[in-house]
Amino acid sequence: MKYLQFTQYIYLVFAVFFIYDAITKMNSKDESYLLSFGIAAVCVFMFFFRRSFFNKAKNRNNNS
Fold this sequence. Notes:
Elements: H1 4-27, H2 33-63
Helix pairs in contact: 1-2
């Protein structure tokens, strides 16, 4: 279960990658940069969702 503590940060790495991808697509006048921004927003949301889920599970295990 220790690996779940670190998997939430993978979403932040992907978010940074997709933000970089969107910025490079904006500079090259590519039309699909909005998709990259959307995926980055989903990655940030998933980071906070997984973080809260992990904290709830940890608190539940500590109270047992």
